[in-house]
Structure prediction request, 397 residues.
Amino acid sequence: MGTILNRTRLFFIVSFLAKALQIPLAVGKSQSNSLCAELIWPKGYPCDEITVETADGFLLGLQHIPFGVAGPSDIPGPAVLLVHGLTAGGDNYVVNDPKEDLALILADAGFDVYIGSNRNTRWSHGSSKYKPEEKAYWDWTLDELAAFDVPAFVEYVYNKRGGSKIFYIGHSQGTLTLMAGLTGGGTAAEQMKDKLRGVVFLAPVAYVTHLSAALVGLLFNTYADQILPLVGIGPADSRILISSVCKLNADACSDLLRGYIGTNSYLNSTRRPTYLKYFPQPTSSYNLNHFGQIKRSEKFGKYDRGPKENLERYGQEEPPLYQLAKFPSESFPQLFFTGGIDQLADPSDTKRLLQELPTSGVREVINLPEYGHGDFVLAQRANIDVYSKIVSFFKSN
Ligand SMILES: *[C@@H]1O[C@H](CO)[C@@H](O)[C@H](O)[C@H]1NC(C)=O
Prediction:
């Protein structure tokens, strides 16, 4: 397929769609946005719904599962914060059966569990400053998730626990936002390292040079992610972009889960309708464009808004790079899981990432040759391959 032809066609399709739709795709108001009510209480677990406000005015969903089915213990275990990936939500950690759900396994193992969902996902609560129709509601990328969302979760949980350090588990974008926060996200974000006891990264992502998932690949290879800003739409719900790309290439979208996250090995196909009930969730078109920039530039840097705006925001015409060498490693135990067939966190990209992160303290890397990107949170056997190892890692650190 010729890239020029695609870009021209896309430009027209997206322009047309954008005008016709005028960004009507806000988070569905009729849908429940209580993750406790949808997937946690029905399984017999305690769960509190908490709203956390970010410093830039977004209202995030946070669920607290204080203990497991056996009931509370006299001394609560360490707190664990779980953060999801791109176009996903906190449901990832509680959508299977209880014995296969990472958040519930941790609660049953005595941990004090928190599940965070980023701004404008299904489980978040809008903004105290902006309405979904306003451009500012969607004017953010992973830079803001790193600088505001992750620090807001960490701050809340740390204070709630009276200043005991917490464990962090991220999947995909949830690993990237912590790395970005700790290595160039601003003062509040960098101070998170004093509140964290250690991290587990599932399918870690900072570089996506070799990303090959069909739909996201098509989006980036045709530069479609750049089109929305070009037609004057700029910040918008990414689903506008995706629906126009799906009109262009139905094959890439025939299986949405696979189109976004690539092939997986151990997903229970009977549960597809449940997975697709919660996936994909909104992100901003700027955020997808930012991932496209990271892919094409092969660099892990801040969002490139063009020389003029870069100069205003960053004090330089080129967006600054995140300094992975600044990622904490002393007294900061870390456990990484990588997948051999992961089409978003491709093995060659995770290899590069692991080479660039400092290694002076405790670091374990477990490679699972048959795992794809979604297997780490959804596979039926992840409880054996991944979660039991996380529990032991936390207990020994
Ligand atoms: C797959 O999921 C369905 C629906 O939850 C369940 O009934 C079935 O037992 C699962 N399959 C296996 C092999 O566990």
User: Anything to note?
Assistant: The radius of gyration is 20 Å. Residues 268, 270-271, 380 surround 2-acetamido-2-deoxy-beta-D-glucopyranose (CB under 6 Å).
